[in-house]
Amino acid sequence: MIDAPGLTHEPFPRGRTRPLFAAGLGTLGLVALLSLSQPQGHPPRLTSAGDCDKQDVNGDTDIGGRGCFGGAALSSSNSEGSTCSVPGLPATMQAILARGPSPLGVSRGIWNIYWTKDALLPPCPYEDEIQVQVRGSSVNPADWYEAQTRGAAQAFDHDPGLGDDVSGVVVAVGRACAAQGFRVGDEVWGVTASATGDFRSREQNAYAQFANVFCKLVGKRSPGAPVSLEDLGTIGLAGGTSIGAMLDAGAPWRPEDNVTLAVASGSGGTGTFAIQGALGLGAARVFAAASADHFATIRSLGATPVDYHTTSLWDALPPSSVDVVWDNLGAAGTAQAAARALKRNGLYLTLAVGHFASWQAAGTGIGTPTLPADGVLVVDGKPIVARSPSVRDEATDSVRIVALMNRLIDAGLMRPVVGKRYPLCDVAAALDESVNGHAAGKIAIDVPPVEGWSIDDFLDAEVRR
């Protein structure tokens, strides 16, 4: 079992900016923007990795300077006070960019995004940023709406990028990050600012070969870690949200606590990370709803699966036998159904509130639960505590949660379950897979190496400089 020293469990105070691992995976409150404008054309869909090198979509995109991650707003206000770029890096990169919202909203096959080989690299990082050569990313439900609304989220003077989860190798370090011990060549992983709802002029997007990232939102990969740098790029948002929820539920637990956890959807990203996080932080047992196809995965993580096709998880569990319910699905009526299995004053934690509820309802049509304002729900005379995960302080708890996940990973207690992989050029197909809702674990985005440029040569040059 891993302990978690120094992590706070209190709800996030009012008045602060939205942090990493906020309640409900919150990154966008922009559902109304889905119907604001018509798409401006859609480049040809890329359908396989082989298509990445065969199809030229740039002739239909009018990239030019508008493809720059940053543009005038960034370069005029960065830490150097002028336009700058990191020496030794290529001039352009592959990236996924967004044109604007689609009037169809979250709809499979209709993503107003495109892949380009000619996006400009981010400018020099701000003092509190690092720049990384991206090695891996993944798809989260938050990316559904970013793909549909990002172009209308602000008055961008260029087509913005996408992507929350990130892993990569540091190629430039802002002064404040250097003071915190970050160095060129470090392998890091975590999330970009997009995952925090921070849409200031600093664009940080992981669906690209290079990205600027706040150093407070990433951690260093441990030497010899059992998870590859590429796969670490699938953990940040879903892993951090799930581990944060376990901390809200009282983890780390002692053996005498004998905690039982039930997970509403065990085979997805937040489900697989919650199972591992709960057991790694001292839970005695975990039950998880899943289809029979995913039983082997659920069991390999240490949980007991229940086939939701044949029986409800809440009916399969003995009455009043569960201490904590992690409702990462959010179907209407789940709180009331789960109350039967929960102990008196047990905890029901759900993601399906706030922004995520709107995404979930629009994307799947399954509805969302309603939580009482005072956080206490009484079902058949039994009170349970029903709420969403706490919103955390990005400057303190977010850093510590990443450190805690590193400890779980290094101890062999947590790993990403990667169900499918897609190349960067085919993010649209990865989004389709995610919206479909039946992917096992995480959907990884593999970011290719830069043609004609080597990170090893770059780091050698840095040593000689």
- What's the architecture of the largest domain in CATH terms? Alpha-Beta Complex
Report the span from N to C terminus.
Answer: 44 Å
Q: Supply the helix-strand structural class.
A: alpha/beta
Q: What's the pLDDT, averaged over the residues?
A: 77
Number of strands: 16
H/E element order: HEEEHEHEEEHHEHEHEHEHEHEEHEHEH
Query: How many individual helices?
Result: 13
Q: What is the global morphology?
A: globular
CATH superfamily descriptor of the largest domain: Medium-chain alcohol dehydrogenases, catalytic domain
Which band does the percent of strand residues land in?
15-25%
Keywords:
465 residues, alpha/beta, Quinone Oxidoreductase, Chain A, domain 1, Rossmann fold, seven-stranded mixed beta sheet, 13 helices, globular
How would you portray this structure in words?
The chain is of the alpha/beta class. It has two domains: 23-235 and 416-464, Medium-chain alcohol dehydrogenases, catalytic domain (Quinone Oxidoreductase, Chain A, domain 1); 242-387, 3-Layer(aba) Sandwich (Rossmann fold), CATH 3.40.50.720. The chain is built from 13 helices and 16 strands. The strands form three sheets. Strands 3, 4, 5, 6, 7, 15 and 16 form a seven-stranded mixed β-sheet that branches.
